Amino acid sequence: MTPRIEVPAAARWVVETLESAGFETWTVGGGVRDALLGAASVDWDFATVARPRDVQRVFRRTVPVGIDHGTVGVLDEWGVLHEVTTFRQDIETDGRHAVVTFADRIEDDLARRDFTINAVAWHPIRKELFDPFGGEADLRTGRLRTVGVPAERFAEDYLRILRGLRFAGRFGMEIDAATWDALVAATDGLGGLSAERIREEWVKMLGTPDPTPGLGLYRESGALDRVAPALGRAGADAWRRAVDLAREVSTDEPVLRTVALFERAMAEVEREDLARGVATWMEGLRFSNADTDRAVHLLATPAELPRAEADASIVRRWLAAVGPERVDDRFALVEASIRAGQAAPDCSDRLRIARETLAGGPPLRVGDLAIGGRDLIRLGLKPGPRFGDLLEALLDRVLENPSLNTRDALIAEVTRRGGLPEAPPEHG
Ligand code: ATP
Ligand code: MG
């Protein structure tokens, strides 16, 4: 029985246009796989016998997105880009890169794909499924297998290890024994991959709605020891709690999920050391500076909300330490810990109080003070590094008692202090 796959009109048009010009063309890859699973595919890829130059000739509007590896972007009438790639064949691989030539047959193109479930082609005009490696059956029975000899396929490109773990996790599939054994044996090869490719895979794996199975497979296979060694070393209990917490963090927040993992899995590590370690790890994987800053800030600032009965000044100090601009990230992690059943019993109250305090708009930053550097100059103080210390000292007073945040009160305070804060102790 041939399954029926509904291909959107624009994707049909791409295939029809090329076929009318005499070029055999198929939809392939993740789009076909997801459709066979009954999921809505957004990402339709095309494989064609047409060479890139032919594709550029056949369509009016094209973009040379990856001509070198045979990919031309085709713009449809709505301005949506479709990636059309000429049939390809690997002639040389080294675990990181491949030397690729164009091929004339769809079967050659499918043979270079990683897993059987990703090596199925669908012809939307002829309504024909071309599935030489049994990908459709593997999807039905939930079995992940490489196309061809597993050890060879991983050695050609070690990224396939991480892709396999991600697909098996995301689709709840069992990894076939031969594929699993070869995958585990190949994990040493992960060290040779570029940081960027590893990071992208890590982020995609964490971007699956429930990352639990994927993370479990990372750990079980030994891939975690390569990708995030510190997490690989965590004890079983800490790891389980870490995964439970990460799952409760929003799916589209891979950085927050990453922070959740480190915070829970390495709860016994000094927070400062943890922040430093994670910074080094993220820089190594070439996370953006913004992502790294965001994670490190969370790890370097207090995680635990003040108790519900704590004095209001303690709540303000906590908000000031976490930073009003960044506190939503911490709130999100606290909410996740409540959902994961890992929070203190009064945690919802703590959260409500912190939010109410923040909403009240108390002064929490030096910039919120009723006086600033200019006022200090007008008071006759010389600008210098001590200014910052003085303003911090004023903020400290205001965090204790926000009603002191008036010009008069703060100027009085400056005068009372003789203009400058006590000098820090000298170090020889
Ligand atoms: P998703 O986009 O949902 O992550 P996908 O299967 O579409 O999954 P892509 O990275 O978009 O993954 O790749 C498209 C197709 O290209 C895959 O389905 C697979 O057939 C092939 N492919 C991608 N990466 C590799 C690889 N490293 N080795 C072999 N084939 C690959
Ligand atoms: Mg895709």
Attribute tags:
single chain; 428 residues; alpha+beta; Beta Polymerase, domain 2; 4 domains; 7-stranded mixed beta sheet; two-stranded antiparallel ribbon; 11% strand; binds adenosine-5'-triphosphate; binds magnesium ion
The low-confidence runs, each spanning 5 or more residues with pLDDT under 50, are none
Main sheet: strands, sense, barrel: 7 strands, mixed
Q: In percent, how helical is the residue content?
A: 40-55%
> Averaging pLDDT over every residue, what do you get?
94
The main sheet orders its strands as 3-4-5-2-1-8-9
| Helical stretch tally | 22
- Look at the helices and sheets and give the structural class: alpha+beta
Could you tell me how far the N terminus lies from the C terminus, measured between alpha carbons in angstroms? 84 Å
Task: List all distinct small molecules, including ions and cofactors, that are bound in this structure.
Answer: adenosine-5'-triphosphate, magnesium ion
Principal-axes shape call: elongated
Share in β-strands: 5-15%
Radius of gyration: 29 Å
Can you tell me the number of structural domains?
Answer: 4
Number of strands: 11
The oligomeric state is: single chain
SSE blueprint and pairings:
Elements: H1 9-20, E1 25-28, H2 30-36, E2 45-48, H3 52-58, E3 62-66, E4 71-75, E5 81-86, E6 88-93, E7 98-102, H4 106-111, E8 121-123, E9 128-130, H5 135-141, E10 143-144, H6 150-156, H7 159-170, E11 174-175, H8 177-186, H9 195-206, H10 212-221, H11 223-227, H12 229-232, H13 236-248, H14 254-265, H15 271-284, H16 289-300, H17 312-322, H18 327-339, H19 347-359, H20 373-378, H21 385-400, H22 407-416
Helix pairs in contact: 6-8, 7-9, 7-10, 13-14, 13-18, 14-16, 15-16, 17-19
The chain binds adenosine-5'-triphosphate and magnesium ion.
